[in-house]
Design a protein that fits this description.
The complex is a heteropentamer.
Chain A lengths: L1 H16 L4 H25 L10 E9 L4 E7 L1 H22 L6 H20 L3 H22 L4 H29 L11 H5 L5 H18 L8 H8 L2 H23 L4 H27 L4 H21 L3 H32 L15 H15 L5 H16 L1 H25 L16 H19 L2 H18 L2
Antiparallel strand pairs in A: 1-2
Helix pairs in contact in A: 1-2, 1-4, 2-3, 2-4, 3-4, 3-10, 3-13, 3-17, 3-18, 4-5, 4-10, 5-6, 5-10, 6-8, 6-9, 8-10, 8-11, 9-10, 9-12, 10-13, 11-12, 11-16, 12-13, 12-15, 12-16, 13-14, 13-15, 13-17, 13-18, 14-16, 14-17, 15-16, 15-17
Chain D lengths: L1 H16 L8 H19 L12 E2 L4 E2 L2 H17 L4 H5 L5 H20 L3 H19 L6 H32 L4 H14 L4 H18 L8 H8 L2 H25 L6 H25 L3 H21 L4 H33 L10 H4 L1 H15 L5 H15 L3 H27 L14 H19 L10
Antiparallel strand pairs in D: 1-2
Chain E lengths: L14 H24 L6 H4 L18 H25 L1 H28 L8
Helix pairs in contact in E: 3-4
Classes of the chains: A mainly alpha, B mainly alpha, C mainly alpha, D mainly alpha, E mainly alpha.
EC number (chain B): 7.1.1.-
Pfam family, one (chain B): NADHdh
Main location (chain B): membrane
């Protein structure tokens, strides 16, 4: 029931937002998202013994299409819970961040963000293939409008590209699901699209590898995996800051989560056929992202490519299929979510003050903005994966995993940290320190609301960095179960 | 089709009958022109044609010669082919129509051969007549359109619209008759009236409707708007001359003849005349059945022609008595009066038959009316 | 009554009817596909319908099964309705463009 | 049956109602009748004995009003009922022939109902013709508009041509099977190869000809070419009528025909043909729609593609219940969405006198409701979740999958991916393009129309969120 | 149901019609040919021009004519088909009995409804 509540609350709020205007709308939106966060936290205590919990709890199941054997089946295990928590944690901050802008028709904007939250949470809690697909698409629609309506001047073609990329992927995924769904009924059994039914399938490796390709297409596009990434930088750049945050902070995790929950356990053999080239692509993505990032002039694009590179590492770690790799992926999902949102927000803050994102035009901003500098530095270091920051734990585990999988790949993947340090610190050095620019004197420091966004992020950076156990314990049983299923 | 049938037919008496029917209809057509003038003269109290031959009896021949020897004229811009085709079609259809009309009962020959006094007996004779006659209007249409003349075109269009409008009511009137007779074969209808009452008794209203429609179908006054000289010069045959013109005229008269024949067959007992079985019985008392039967048959044929001539006269009588309708009146008469009347007639007939009439069908005289059967018919 | 019908018709073998109807039908189809005058196309369609009528009548006679002829009646009625509507449309168009050549109708691209 | 009688009688009455001085009473009257018919059908739903193919036969079993017929009747009546308010333009123009248009719509609805309730090919034929002939008139109802005339002519010529072909097919099949009754025909067809092998070629030719006729009627490629012209030229309301009711009736009727008469092992003969038509239809429909610049024409092509999707159910007819349900679900979702899209286009057209994409620019600013409704319908047509279109498509796909047509399914999915591109274009125009000069003024929308739009959107979303409510009617 | 009497007609029975047709054709052809040969032929420009009461003929003779005529034709087609339906009914009237009568009453009722409708619609208003 609680899970359903988590789903329903944002929608209701979104609908209500249709009727209120101005500051009331902001209050309503923020209030709703905070309430959502509170619910999410409460959920942690709701299933005590969550640490030993392997099967999803807080389940809810009612018949959706009885004749077709499709049920509206939702529930959370540790893995889902962490991502739900991440979503619930980030959305209020994103809303808060969007308050600074004066978009036209703001309540529609907030409504879409909340609607999006429902979609995201739905994806994370779905336990039925079609519920999953359903929310997967539901999450897509609002982000399309957010980026398309409130975005930059090149928004229309860019968002169209993004939408088509994603939808084509998800349609292939649908094909895969339909096939699995059909296979559940071959031996006279009632067809079902339930997760467990899929887990119980026994398919030939041939079938598995085909299904894998179909479904992985969707996830790979969302992540994005290297050759399929071309929608990402444009979209991040053109979308309004909050949309970019949603995209990079949460939506990108849908792909990874999907792979963990809906791909690896269902078609393990089929996956193992493909692991090789995927790893290679992932590592290429790491290097590629990093190198491009180095050459970027635009802060937002730089962040986009750095995120591409980090995601590459996550993918690589995930496909090592070791407990280290998976745990690392989980933690890194959280960390990356926090960091990238923070980075985008800071980029947004600077842009709003200076009116530009060009690194060349910026410089020497520190003098008048101590707070900004501090927050920026912390989050930056977190992204660089300095020990004691959140980035470190994840990347360390991931690299270990990759190294175990294949030392050479591990070595190459290790470059990501060095590269990351290079381009991020160079950016920081040029933007904040460096020779004075026209803005050095005029720029003002963070305001209260901006602090309200950044402080939680900063705290989270340290929390994950210092006590990763908090989260790893939650995800551990789920991850172990996944491993069991994968190695069956 | 095997030719043995053809040959055996050609040398049979039946083919003679066909020739006779054909010739008679042509003859009547020719002399109708004469009759028309005589009647007109009589009604207008003046002397009709009286130069050519005694009482001008040779007048038609003179006309024929004239028509043949006139120059045939093709208006500029006319579609020659269709221009010629129009009158031909009109004439052909007119001549075809008389094929199924029973001009009399059977003649019995010494060798026991039976000759129907009818070109051909088909079970759908009535439909045949309808089909062929309504084809005739194409002749008018084509001719009128082909002559590239506004008058002709208007005449043609009028002819068509009028023909179709009245065909409706005509068909409906006929249906009422069908309900009484239960067959479409003209011969059977005639034979059914051989003894007992003529259909006019059952179908007075139907007859009136049918008669009016027959006038309209044959473009006779008061419905001769397609060719009303006061408005349209000559109507559809404005541009026609010589024998083409003649064909149109003949076609009209032959149609009148056919219409009369059909009317007398359907409603006035065809070749039956009152007291025929009395005569038959009287003759058989003294003469052979063969002789008696043939005499009755011949008398029947004569009576039929009497009836036909009466109706032809009636046509002419009306022509020289009644003024012409206006076109909208014509249409309104056809659609808003005759059509509902016909439907009413059908309903009344049906109700009558169901509630008062005898349930079983009228005596079915479908078999060839050999003398024995005739007698049974007559004696009943 | 039904059993008497066959002798009437069977003097002509069934195949002849079928081939005849097929020929009529094909002529109609070709006409529709090749001719450009709306009226002629329309007449060709009617030709097709009548081919069907012939076929149905023949079959129903051979099968001694009146349904076929009933069907023919309905086809006639429907054809009449089609004629009415179709002529109406054609007249309407003629009054707008003084022509019935379907090639002239290019406001909408095929 | 009651619906048929009611509709035809009211259609007649409506004609005479037209002689009244004011024709403002017509729309309410017609809508009332439709509402009553709808109510009758909905009430009848729980009468269990209607569940099988032939219950309560009429006219010596030529027409059976079973659950199948009832469900699709409901769909079509609902569609027309919700479509009518968008025809109010006629009322405002004081159109002298308004009564005729409404009556003809009712009559064509009767035809459509006959097409789903027939049990004898004769009735099917009559239904098709009643529907088609009415549609010829409606297509040309905008007498002064040459495009309308032209579309009427094209529709008429193509339609009657198709009728001829269909009839010849029927005649040949009659010759082979000696019956018009669906069930007997099915028996005879299955028995024929053994009983009278000489007749089988005639039978097969007949079936092929019927397929061609069917293709014409539901505008399946390669017999689709008339569709875009006709849809574009006809008055928008009637275009909507054509693309919803006609298609629903067509597919439902032909499903019944193919299942009962030509199902089973006979299907082995014609299924390949049908499959080829399906592939071609999907391809042409979607690719053609991408190329369009005119929203109405795009919808015409999209309706072709939807015919293709529906044909998936015809192909998968051997798993009967699945396909039935799929057809029902899809046609309902599709009809509702189409009504919305065409309705919005009609309103926009009434004000702006054009129906290309740009005429929609900035609609989100001027008429949020219209824009939102249009968006929902577009997403539904595209088969995005949260709308009825998704579950419709899903059921079709699962039916096809159950028959093992994996390749077709993947193909269909790729096609609908293409579809998304052109369904997004109106949305982009409405939300992301600024209003041009001349399109700045808000489109006038009456209360009734906006209410209907809300209902429609509600239904579409309801189908997408709680499909269970619409499930199991045909199980 | 079928318009046939128990007498079995052979195609040969329809031979007379063909013969009569031949005769008619022969007569027509004869008269045409003869009149063509016999009659004089003196053409002139004025003489060949189509007749318009002596004045110059203006415009195309085949001008579009009042739509009323088309309407009449179309209506004829419609109603005549209804009549076709009545023929078999009428022939078998007695066999069908009361049932057939009632059915036909319905049929005619609908027919009359349509009839009344077209009259009311002003099909026969030739004035305007």
């Amino acid at each position: 029931m609680l899970t359903a509540l988590l789903l329903i609350l944002p929608v209701v709020a979104a609908l209500l937002l249709h009727f209120v205007r101005g500051s009331a709308a902001r209050a309503l939106a923020l209030g709703a998202s905070l309430l959502e966060l509170a619910l999410a936290v409460y959920a942690a205590f709701q299933f005590n013994g969550v640490y030993s919990q392997t099967n999803p709890t807080l389940e809810l199941k009612y018949h959706w299409l009885e004749s077709a054997g499709i049920a509206f089946h939702i529930g959370m295990d540790g893995l889902s819970y962490l991502l739900v928590l991440l979503t619930a944690f980030l959305v209020p901050l994103i809303l808060l961040a969007s308050f600074r802008h004066n978009y036209d028709n703001p309540s529609a904007f907030y409504a879409l963000v909340l609607f999006m939250q429902t979609g995201l949470i739905g994806v994370f809690v779905a336990l039925d293939a079609f519920v999953f697909y359903f929310f997967w698409e539901v999450a897509l629609i609002p982000i399309y409008f957010l980026a398309g309506v409130w975005g930059g001047e090149r928004r229309v073609p860019v968002t169209l590209k993004f939408f088509l990329y994603t939808v084509i992927g998800s349609l292939l995924m649908l094909a895969g699901f339909v096939y699995l769904y059909y296979m559940t009924g071959v031996n006279g059994a009632m067809r079902s699209s339930d997760l467990d039914a899929f887990y119980n399938l026994t398919l030939s490796t041939q079938e598995q590898s085909w299904v894998f390709l179909l479904i992985f297409a969707a996830f790979a596009i969302k992540m994005p995996l290297w050759p399929l990434h071309s929608w990402q930088p444009d979209t991040y750049e053109q979308a309004p800051a909050p949309a970019s945050m949603l995209l990079s902070g949460i939506m990108l995790k849908m792909g990874i989560y999907g792979t963990l929950r809906w791909l690896m356990p269902i078609v393990p053999q089929g996956m193992s056929v493909h692991v090789g080239w995927i790893m290679v692509l992932a590592v290429i993505g790491i290097i590629y992202g990093a190198i491009i990032a180095i050459r970027q002039r635009d802060v937002k694009r730089l962040i986009a490519f750095s995120s591409l590179s980090h995601v590459g590492l996550m993918i690589a770690g995930m496909f090592t299929l070791t407990d280290k790799g998976l745990q690392g992926t989980v933690i890194q999902m959280l960390a990356h979510g926090v960091n990238v949102v923070g980075m985008f927000f800071i980029a947004d803050v600077i842009e709003r003050r200076t009116g530009t994102r060009q690194i060349a035009e910026l410089g020497g901003l520190t003098r008048r903005t101590p707070l900004l500098t501090v927050c920026f530095l912390v989050i930056l270091l977190g992204t660089v994966a300095l020990p004691l920051t959140n980035g470190f734990v994840g990347e360390f585990l991931l690299l270990m995993g990759v190294y175990q999988f294949n030392p050479w790949l591990g070595a190459v993947a290790g470059l990501t940290i060095i590269f990351g340090a290079v381009y991020l610190l160079r950016m920081f050095q040029r933007v904040m320190l460096g020779p004075d620019s026209s803005f050095s004197e005029t720029i003002t420091d963070l305001t209260g609301s901006e602090l309200a966004v950044l402080v939680p992020l900063v705290l989270m950076v340290f929390w994950i960095g210092l006590f990763p156990g908090t989260f790893m314990h939650i995800s551990e049983p789920a991850v172990n179960k996944l491993l069991v299923l994968i190695n069956r | 089709m095997d030719f043995s049938a053809l040959t055996s037919f050609v040398i049979s008496w039946q083919s003679l009958v066909i020739l006779a029917v054909f010739g008679i209809s042509l003859l009547i057509a020719t002399y109708s022109t004469y009759a028309e003038r005589v009647v007109a003269a009589f009604l207008q109290d003046r002397v009709g044609p009286d130069r050519a031959g005694p009482y001008g009896l040779l007048q038609p021949l003179a006309d024929a010669v004239k028509l043949f020897t006139k120059e045939e004229f093709f208006p500029a811009g006319a579609n020659r082919g269709l221009f010629v085709f129009g009158p031909c079609l009109a004439m052909t259809t007119a001549l075809m129509a008389s094929a199924v009309i029973p001009f009399g009962n059977t003649l019995l020959l010494g060798n026991g051969e039976v000759v129907r006094l009818q070109a051909i007996e088909v079970n759908i004779g009535m439909l045949y007549v309808f089909g062929v006659v309504s084809l005739g209007v194409y002749g008018l249409m084509i001719g009128g359109w082909a002559s590239n003349n506004k008058f002709s075109l208007l005449g043609a269009i009028r002819a068509a619209a009028q023909a179709v409008s009245y065909e409706l009511a005509m068909g409906m009137a006929l249906i009422a008759l069908l309900m009484v007779t239960g067959t479409l074969s003209l011969r059977q209808i005639a034979l059914q009236q051989y003894d007992g009452l003529w259909n006019i008794v059952y179908q007075p209203l139907g007859f009136i409707i049918f008669c009016v429609c027959a006038f309209a179908e044959t473009n006779r006054t008061p419905f001769d708007l397609p060719e009303c000289e006061t408005e349209l010069v000559g109507g559809y045959h404005t541009e026609y001359s010589s024998m083409k013109m003649g064909l149109y005229l003949f076609a009209e008269y032959i149609n009148v003849f056919v219409a009369s024949a059909v009317m007398s067959t359907l409603y006035f007992g065809g070749f039956s005349f009152p007291g025929e079985h009395l005569l038959y019985n009287y003759l058989t008392a003294s003469q052979s059945e063969l002789f008696a039967h043939n005499v009755v048959t011949i008398l029947g044929t004569v009576t039929l022609f009497a009836k036909i001539f009466f109706f032809i006269f009636f046509f002419m009588w009306v022509r020289w008595t009644l003024p012409r309708f206006r076109y909208d009146q014509l249409m309104r008469l056809g659609w808003t009066m005759l059509f509902p009347l016909a439907i009413l007639n059908i309903i009344l007939t049906g109700a009558f038959i169901l509630f008062f009439g005898n349930k079983e069908a009228k005596l079915d005289v479908s078999k060839e009316a050999a003398p024995t059967e005739i007698r049974t018919v007559a004696r009943r | 009554m039904e059993q008497t019908i066959p002798e009437v018709i069977r003097t002509v073998p069934l195949q002849h009817y079928v081939f005849f109807a097929a020929a009529l039908f094909s002529i109609g189809v070709l006409g529709v596909l090749t001719r450009r005058n709306a009226i002629i196309i329309f007449m060709c369609v009617e030709l097709m319908l009548n081919a069907v009528n012939v076929l149905l009548a023949a079959f129903s006679a051979y099968r001694a099964d009146p349904n076929g002829q009933v069907f023919v009646f309905f086809i006639m009625a429907v054809a009449a309705a089609e004629v009415a509507v179709g002529l109406g449309i054609i007249v309407m168009i003629y009054r707008n463009i003084q022509n019935t050549d379907v090639n002239l109708l290019d406001r909408l691209k095929w | 049956m009651l619906s048929i009688i009611l509709l035809s009688v009211s259609g007649l009455a409506n004609l005479f109602l037209g002689f009244l001085r004011s024709n403002r009473v017509l729309l309410p009257a017609v809508m009332l009748v439709l509402a009553v018919v709808l109510a009758i059908n909905l009430i009848g739903f729980d009468t269990g004995q209607l569940a099988d193919w032939n219950a309560s036969p009429y006219f010596a079993g030529m027409l059976t009003f079973d659950r199948y017929a009832q469900v699709f009747t409901t769909v079509m009546v609902l569609t027309v009922l919700l479509l009518l308010p968008f025809s109010q333009k006629f009322v405002q123009d004081g159109n002298p022939n308004l009564a005729e248009f409404y009556s003809i719509m009712l009559f064509s609805l009767v035809g459509a109902i006959m097409m789903v309730s027939y049990n004898n090919v004769l009735v099917l034929f009559l239904g098709i013709e009643t529907l088609s002939i009415a549609m010829y008139v409606l297509a040309g109802s905008d007498k002064s508009n040459l495009r309308s005339n032209e579309s009427a002519l094209k529709y008429f010529l193509m339609g009657s041509f198709a009728t001829g072909i269909l009839l010849f097919g029927i005649a040949l099949i009659y010759g082979a099977t000696r019956t018009f009754d669906l069930a007997q025909m099915g028996v005879a067809v299955r028995a024929l190869p053994a009983a009278d092998p000489g007749m089988t070629p005639m039978l097969y030719i007949g079936i092929l000809l019927m397929l061609i006729g069917i293709g014409f009627k539901i505008s399946a490629a390669p017999f689709h070419f008339w569709t875009p012209d006709v849809y574009e030229g006809a008055p928008t309301v009637f275009t909507a009528f054509m693309s919803t009711v006609v298609k629903t009736a067509g597919v439902a009727g032909f499903f019944k025909l193919l299942t009962i008469a030509f199902g089973g092992d006979t299907s082995g003969f014609w299924l390949p043909t049908l499959t080829a038509m399906l592939v071609l239809t999907l391809l042409i429909g979607n690719v053609g729609a991408v190329a369009q610049t005119n929203a109405k024409r795009m919808l015409a092509y999209s309706s072709i593609s939807h015919a293709g999707y529906l044909m998936l159910a015809l192909v998968a007819l051997n798993s009967e219940t699945l396909s039935k349900t799929a057809i029902f679900f899809y046609s309902l979702a599709y009809s509702l969405s189409t009504v919305v899209s065409f309705g919005v286009l009609a309103l926009v057209h009434d004000q702006r006198q054009r129906d290309d994409y740009d005429s929609l620019n900035g609609l989100a600013k001027t008429n949020p409701l219209l824009a939102f409704a249009m968006t929902v319908s577009m997403l539904s047509l595209a088969g995005i979740p949260l709308t009825g279109g998704f579950f419709g498509k899903f059921q079709l796909l699962s039916a096809a999958t159950a028959e093992g047509y994996i390749g077709l399914v993947v193909f269909a999915l790729v096609m609908s991916a293409i579809g998304i591109y052109y369904y997004l274009r109106p949305i982009i125009a409405m939300y992301m393009k600024p209003a041009e000069e001349g399109t700045a003024a808000p489109v006038p929308v009456t209360m009734l129309q906006s209410a209907v739009l809300v209902v429609l959107v509600g239904l579409i979303v309801l189908m997408g969120v709680a499909p269970g409510l619409f499930d199991g009617f045909l199980a | 149901m079928l318009l046939a009497t128990p007498v079995a007609y052979q195609p040969a029975d329809y031979l007379p019609i063909i013969i009569q047709f031949g005769l008619a054709l022969a007569f027509v052809a004869f008269s045409m040919v003869v009149s063509h040969l016999v009659g004089p032929k003196r053409h002139s420009k004025v003489k060949d021009s189509s007749f318009e009461c002596g004045i110059e003929s203006v415009g195309n003779a085949r001008t579009p004519i009042s739509v009323k005529y088309f309407l009449t034709a179309i209506l004829f087609v419609l109603f005549d088909v209804e009549v076709i339906f009545m023929y078999p009914w009428a022939v078998n009237f007695r066999e069908l009995g009361m049932f057939g009568f009632v059915e036909m009453l319905m049929f005619m009722g609908l027919l009359l409804a349509g009839f009344y409708y077209i009259i009311k619609k002003g099909i026969l208003k030739w004035q305007n």
